[in-house]
Structure formats: C-alpha cells, structure tokens
Amino acid sequence: MNVKSISIKTIIFGITGALGGTVGELISQGLRLNDAGRTYFETVIRMAAWTAFLGLGVSAGLLAAQSIYLKKRPVPESLIKTAIMGILWGAAAGVVAQVAFFVTNAIFEMAITVSSAISSILCWGIMGWGIGWGVSLYVPNYPKKRAMAAGSLGGLIGGVIFTITLSLLPAATGRITGIIALGFFIGLAISCMEEVFRETP
C-alpha cells in the first residue's frame, strides 16, 4: 500500500470537499436565516434549501476529486445521482436540524444552546451519511455501508468544528470556516476509509 499516494488522494478529497461546501455556501448567500416574521414552515424550507446547496456542493466537489484522481470524466448518470443524493440528504439534514431546534426551543428554554448544538452536529452527520452514499455510486468497488459510515464520521467531526467556530467567531466568518471544515472532513474520512478497505484482504 502506497502511503504517499493515499495521502495525496486524501488531501485532494479533503480540499475539494471543502471547496464544494464553500461554493454551496456562497451560492446560498440569499438564504440568510433571519427568521423574524417568518412562519415555521417557511423557516424549515429555507434551512432545507441552504443545507441542500451545501450537500450538493460537497458531493460535486468529491465527484470532481475522484475524476481528477482517476483521470477520467464522470459519466452523466454519476453526475445526476451525485447531485440528487447531495441535495436530498443535505435538505433532510436541514429539516431535521430546524425541527429539532424548534422542539427544544419550545420545551427546554434553559438548554437551548446545548440541545441545538447537539442536534446540529447530529444533522451534519446525517448529511455526511447521505453524501457518503452518493460517493459510493461512483467510486469503484466501494461498499455503500462503509461509504456511509465514513461520510457520517466526517460529517460529525465537521459538525463539531462548525458549531464551535460559529459560537466563537463573527457569524459570517464562523459559517464559512465551519463549512470548509465540514466539507474537508467528509472528504477526508471517505477517502481514508475507501483506501483502507480497498487494501484490506
């Protein structure tokens, strides 16, 4: 097993995952989460739209990384499947996160910060899970379960960093820093696990 080549591929996946998430965040700049005067349903839809862009961006970035590494263009079917998985699981994570926040906000006023942080981290894990599934559709011989486990792990790690940076840094800086970390660690975990299990007898 060539450790050097694995490291290069892993770094490529991490960087393109981060870039993809950043692009998704920049595209969704109009979806600022200022919920004043908005209905419950409108807030959930806006959150789902935002995280759908993030999921699409990270998935597209990882597809680009795999294409670069294999030195071949992805087939249209892979592009479509990747886009669909990224959007669906990104949106699902956003819906779960927002609903969880509303529920905890209504029940535990004293524990809003802690409960919303935990639900946010778990939902980034959900997004990573779905992105991992999407990645398994175009990475040769990569079992879905392992890809989803790797994506979940990366999403959880990225979610922790996202939550911390969002609480410590100014809103705009915290968001973009957190998104970069999210995409990076999803890409990193998926690439590492794919290499490890590919070399395992």
Topology:
Elements: H1 3-27, H2 40-70, H3 76-107, H4 112-136, H5 144-168, H6 171-199
What is the total tally of β strands? 0
- Proportion of β residues? under 5%
Indicate the structural class: mainly alpha
What is the domain tally?
1
What integer is the average pLDDT? Answer: 77
Indicate the overall shape: globular
- First-last Cα distance: 12 Å
State the low-pLDDT regions, or none. 1-5
Q: Rg, please?
A: 17 Å
How much helicity do the residues have? over 70%
Q: Main sheet?
A: none
What are the secondary-structure elements, in order, as H or E?
A: HHHHHH
Account of the 3D structure:
The structure is a single chain. The chain is mainly alpha-helical and 201 residues long. The chain has one domain. The protein has helices spanning 3-27, 40-70, 76-107, 112-136, 144-168, 171-199.
Q: Key terms for this structure?
A:
single chain; 201 residues; mainly alpha; 83% helix; 0% strand; globular
Summed up:
This protein has helices spanning 3-27, 40-70, 76-107, 112-136, 144-168, 171-199. The chain is an all-alpha fold and 201 residues long.
